[in-house]
Specification:
This protein is an alpha/beta fold. Helix content is 31%, strand content 22%. It has a single domain (54-296), classed as Vaccinia Virus protein VP39 (Rossmann fold, 3-Layer(aba) Sandwich). The strands form two sheets. A seven-stranded mixed β-sheet has the order 6-5-4-7-8-11-10, with helices on both faces. A four-stranded antiparallel β-sheet has the order 1-2-3-9, with no helix packed on it. α1 (69-81) crosses α2 (100-107). It is globular, with a radius of gyration of 19 Å.
Length: 299
Amino acid sequence: MLRWSVPATPGASCTACGASADHWNSKEGFLLLRCGTCGTIVARPESGGPLEPAHYASYHQCSTYEVPEVVEASLDSLAASAEPYRRTGRWLDIGYGEGGLLLAAQKRGWTCYGTEQSSDALVFGRSRGWTVTEQASGDDRFGVEDFDIVTLVEVIEHLADPIRALSQAVRWLRPGGLLYLTTPNANSLNRLLLGQQWSIFCPPEHLTIWTRVGLVEALGGVGMTRIRLRTQGLNPAEILARFRPPGRQRVVHRQAAALSLNQALSRTRPRRALKRAANAALNLFGIGDTLKAWSEKPW
C-alpha cells in the first residue's frame, strides 16, 4: 500500500471533481460527505482536525504471498491484455501489496517496478528481483516517462490526496502508455442496500469512495485520454448477513467471502457463463462493487 505524506485539508469539497460535498452519513468518528455533482463520497474527521490516512508499514506481516488460482488466472489475463502497450518493457505497480499483478507481469517478461509502504512487501519484492521502494519520488531508478504500464489496484481509495497520486502516476507513464486502476464503487448494489454499514466505509483506511463520473473527471483532470470504465463484481455476503433473523447474524469477512464466491463461480463452464452474464448486467446498470478504469497518456 502507498501513503502520500501530504494531508488533505478537511472541508466540504469533493476529492474527485472539486464540487460541493454535503453531509451524507457518519461512521467511526468521520463525516461521510457526498458530492452533489458526481456522487463520490469522501471521509473527513468529525473533529475538523487534519486528515491523516491509516499507516501500512506492517500491513502485510501475516501475508503468505500465495496467489489463489482463480485470482492468478484473472491477473494473467490482465497482463496479457497489456501487450499492445509494450515499448520499454517496464511495468510499475503502485501499492503492489502481495504482488500478484507483478508476478503475472513478470511471467510474461515485463521488467517489474513497484512501490509499497509495507516493509514485508518490500522484502518480498526484492526477493523476486523487482525494483521496489517505499517512495518513488526522488528515487533515480524510477524515471519520468519510463513505463509502458502504471497500475494502482485498490489504492486510490486509501489516499488523502489521490489527485496528486494520479498526477505522479501520469508523470512516470510514457506517452501512449496505459494507466490501469481499480477502486470500490460508491454506486454499487452493496452501497445502495447497506449504506454506510457496507464494510468498504472504514475510515481512515478508506477515505474516498468513487463513482464512474468522479473517476472520469479525475482522470481527465490529470491529462488522461481514451478513458474506459467498467463496474463489475458483487459480493452478497454482507447483504445476506444483514437480513438474517436476530440471533443468527454473524461477522462477514468481505475478502474471504469474495474469494470463495469467485472460486465457486469459476469451477465449471456454465458457472463461468453465469459469472460473465452477471458482470455484464452489473456493468450495464453501474452497480458492481468495483470500478475498473483504463486510460492512456496522450502522445
